[in-house]
Specification:
Blueprint lengths: L5 H19 L2 H4 L10 H20 L4 H14 L1 H10 L5 H27 L1
Helix pairs in contact: 1-3, 3-4, 4-6, 5-6
């Protein structure tokens, strides 16, 4: 594997893994979905899992990598409110769980930067 493709393949793997987890273990993802959205939370969980799988596939294929990288960056930006909700909801959780929920928030920005770098190198 060429070194220049390694970041894209790793990103595709992360997206694919998370997409599969939306189906294999959907309950934690359901809790991130705002109640104000129409339809069931599970439908949104499955829909976002499909999106992650599709975007992961787009990133994996050189021909669609540029679009996939942009879509991944937008996806990471789009799920940020759900991560904020998870951190706020964890206010009464045990300290380790609260710490993890809040620590995830600044990690979203490197994911966005990674996706944009993959797009720019495509």
């Amino acid at each position: 594997m060429a070194t220049s493709q390694r970041p894209a393949h790793l990103l595709a793997g992360v997206l694919g893994t998370m997409g599969v987890l939306h189906f294999a273990v959907p309950k934690p993802f359901d809790g991130l979905i705002p109640r104000s959205l129409p339809g069931s939370r599970r439908a949104w969980t499955y829909g976002s899992g499909v999106a992650e799988l599709a975007i992961g596939a787009a990133v994996a294929v050189p021909r669609t990598r540029r679009l996939g990288g942009l879509a991944a960056a937008l996806l990471f930006l789009g799920v940020f409110p759900g991560n904020v909700k998870m951190a706020v909801d964890a206010s009464s959780a045990p300290l380790p769980q609260r710490a993890i929920a809040w620590a995830r928030l600044p990690l979203q920005w490197p994911l966005i930067a990674w996706a944009l770098k993959v797009r720019d190198r495509a």
